[in-house]
Specification:
The protein is an all-alpha fold. It has one domain. The protein has 13 helices and 2 strands. The chain is globular, with a radius of gyration of 19 Å. The relative contact order is 0.16.
Length: 306
Amino acid sequence: MQELVLGDPPPPRASGKLARSWRDYQWAHVVPFALVHLLSLGAIWSGVTVEAVVVAVVLFWVRMFGVTGGYHRYFSHRTFKTGRVFQFVLALLAMSSAQRGVLWWAAHHRDHHKYSDSDRDVHSPVKWGFWHAHFGWIWDGNDKTNFHRVKDLAKYPELVWLDKHWLVPPVALGLACWALWGWSGLFVGFCLSTSVLWSATFTVNSLAHIWGKRRYETTDASRNNVWLALLTMGEGWHNNHHHYMASCRQGFYWWEIDMSYYVIKMLGWLGIVWDIREPPAKVYAPATETVSPVAAPVATADSEAA
C-alpha cells in the first residue's frame, strides 16, 4: 500500500447543517443504519440465548472503549502514544462499532472542536436541535473524509485503506457472531448491541451540550454529566474535555469516574501505550477562564506512532 497523495483541500462548508427539510437527507445512506436496528427484532424469531446476551454486553463495553479510547482520545486528539501495530488494533476495534473510518471520525471531530456550537458545527444541538445532532448530521453531506484535517494519520496506508473500506470490520464481526453463536448471536450479540452502542455514543453530541453542569466558561455549551459519563466510559465529562482537550483523562477529579482513562492507564502499565497526557495544574485553578474551542493540534513527529 502506498501513502495517500493529498490534492487540494475541499472548500469549507457554508453551514454546519445543509438539510433544510427531512427530504434533504441522504436517505439511501440511512438504509444500513435502519437495517441493523430492524435485524435486532429477529430475536423474536430466533429466541434469546444466554450466550447471545453475554456477547451483546461484552461487545457493547469493549467497542465503547474502541470509540472513546480509539476514535476519540487517540485518533482525534492524540492524547497518548502507541506503536503502529496497536494503532492498527485500535482502529479495527473502533471501526467494529460501524461508525465509519478512523480518519473520517477524527477529521469531523477536530472540526467539531474548531467550530463547536457555531453555525459551522455539524452536530450542535444548540444550533440544529436534538435529532440532527444525535444522528441526522451523519446523512447531511458529511460522508467524505477531509484528509487535510488528519495529515498525521493519512500518512499510514493501512489506516487510509481501513477508512475507505470501513464496513469490513463490522461486517466481519457480525459474521463471526453468527458463525459462533447462531442467529441469536447475530440478532442480539451483534445487531442489538450495535444499535444500543450507536445511541449511547451519539448522546455525547446530542445531550452533552444541553444537559448537565458547567465547571468552565467555555465559548460553547459543553456540560459535565455523570450519567453520560457512566454510559460512555468517561465521555460525559464533556465540559472538562472542551476546556482542555489535550488531556487523556477527562474526569479531572478522583470522583469523576472515567473508565476509558483507567483502561488506558492499565495499557500504559503493560507498556502498550505511553506518554499519557494528564490535565495540567492550571485546569484546577478557579474556573473563570473562557477558553476558545480551537481544533485539536495536529500531531508532530514526536507524537506519531512508533
